[in-house]
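Can't paste images in this forum, so I'm doing it all in text. The chain is below; anyone willing to post the predicted structure tokens underneath?
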Amino acid sequence: MTTRRHFLQMATLSAAATGLGSKVRASGKKTAAKAADLQIGIAGYTFLKFSVDQSIAMMKRTGVMTLSIKDFHLPLDSSSETVNAVLEKFRSNGITIYAAGVIYMKTREEVDRAFDYAKKLGIGMIVGVPNPDLLPYTEQKVRANNIRVAIHNHGPEDKLYPSPADVYDKISQMDPRVGLCLDIGHSLRAGTDPVKAITDYGPRIFDLHIKDLASAAKDAKAIELGRGVMNIPGVVKALNEIGYAGKCSIEHEMDMTDPLPGIAEAAGYFRGVLKTINA
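Text version of the structure:
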């Protein structure tokens, strides 16, 4: 795994080599294409214990302005008036709602409700967990509404979709608008290297939940991004290689009662990785 210390050492070496890199380019030799900029977002579960107003304030302080909204901020059965009021509150503060979820779907009625909710929000993607027997019906709804579904893997405790492979194996022959929300932390705990998962399942990865872990064990605890074992530079490089166009959403689960420091550190570290790799 690439550690935070190793990455910072490499960043220093990269900065020192900038002059040499410009000389190579000037000589006409082929250089690698510049990495695409990846957009940072927030996975709404991060704000489990906070109101809409408190969540907005934290997002503005960290400069992360895209959100996958969770239903504790906007219940699935909300009226159109409530939806519009909450959306306007985010919009007026410069925040874009790009997805909703994670939404669990155990019946056809719950699948219908999730798609109705997405239509009310005016979004094009649901981050969801439909029961496997409901995947054919979910695919029908995707086709009827042109709303993508990104199925979230939840780690070794999850009986439905522990790893990215458990999602991909069930959807690989479905409509290409049925894909994955790759949670890199849960992926690692389930024994799958997230870098390999990105390479293997690239076209089907619609969303990314980014986090770090203290170890790669099944019961590993969350830690600030960049302080643990997660190979974030490798993740970024793999995303660039597949031409990933989705969000990289911070899901901070280390201290749910005080997430602001962790969000700020995660956003700063991730931006630093992007800047170094894009140099």
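The two ends are 22 Å apart (CA to CA). Strands lie at 39-43, 66-69, 96-105, 125-130, 148-152, 178-183, 205-210, 212-213, 222-223, 247-250.
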